[in-house]
Predict the 3D structure of the following.
Amino acid sequence: MLPLWFRRVVVTVALLWFAQGAVAGEPEWANFKLRFMEADGRVVDHLQGDISHSEGQGFAMLLAVHYGDRDAFDHLWQWTQQHLQVREDNLLAWRWHPDNGITDKNNASDGDLLVAWSLLRADERWHVPAYMAASQKIALDIREKLFRKTAQGLVLLPGIEGFEKPEGITINLSYWVFPALREIGRADPAPEWEELTKTGLAILQYARFGRWGLPPDWLQLGVKVKPGSPERFSYDAVRIPLYLLWGRQESEALLKPYRDYWGYFGAGRYMPAWTNFNDDSVDSYEASAGIRAVARWVTGFPYAASSGASHADEQQGYYSTILILLSKMAIAERGRPVANN
């Protein structure tokens, strides 16, 4: 075992490094880094076997720009480049394991989009041309390799492999990160980004299932829940209303299913993590603080902008903490003017 004095020095140095970049009054970013980000820039999802994924790297990079934490951003991007940007194109392998390295070289289009978006914002904040160049390359590959023309309109494949089959194309509507789609044209000027937004909004109008008319985590165009996947509004789909509000794409009709569902449980202490469309049953486990943060903002919007606020305590895992921080970031940005593309 290492000497006690050495371990104390290591902990002290780590705490100082992780605390850098957290703005006054926002200790949750420093806490996120301390709990989920290693010194080399790897974001760790402890509840999934300590893996890292492109989604986690992208979320953390986005938050680092938001908090003005250039040092953390550089570490996050360097790790992402070295360990995930290993394909023949500019997209990212989506999953990395500390013991085995890349365990799935397929990409995840939401992770790609989040990383490209964060690089765009990083260049606009810190004026580093290399960030913009990297954003442009990823965005171009997303558009050229992952967009598909369908009878429903232009859609986004969740990954290059495995989502186009004879029985239909599978999509994940939570991969439509509407605020990113609104801005990414500054890196990759092309009309397809707006077209993709319009298709996503149109599909949300009719991809409604169960008692509350909610979208599923995974959808087979046609429109039905992807065969073989849980027929649920669950951990993926909870991001959809967050992105609608953040991207200023909301309407009463689009928000109604989430308000009806979460509002049904709003008067009581219990809020389920998911609902099943087959019988309208709900999870016996309570929703995390992160899901509750999204639900409070959605059900309270626009009368209570702070209603999405929630504390990311030590009991929350990576994903719940991310949802809390993203909700706070989105609420803050709703108060700013919309940037022109």
User: Anything to note?
Assistant: Confidence is low (pLDDT under 50) at residues 1-25.
